[in-house]
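Usage

Read records sequentially. Each one opens with the input sequence:
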Amino acid sequence: VLGITKKLITTGRERGSITLDEINAMLPATQISVERIEQVMSALKEMNIRISDEEDIADFDEEEDVLPEGE
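and closes with the structure output:
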């Protein structure tokens, strides 16, 4: 679990966020306790890594592509 947590942290730091789908894929609830998943999510939040769903990331990416007029 420690290796997976490090990978989540690295990915989150690189992008500034990580999705719930990525967390669930790497930490499946069927193999890891809910308490441990919550601990990992808390650690990510403490490191200022935003946890979002895929829709939030897509919305954010679309906003970045839009420049104000004149730029």
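Summary fields computed downstream for this record:
- The CA atoms of residues 42 and 49 lie 10 Å apart.
- The chain has a mean pLDDT of 79.
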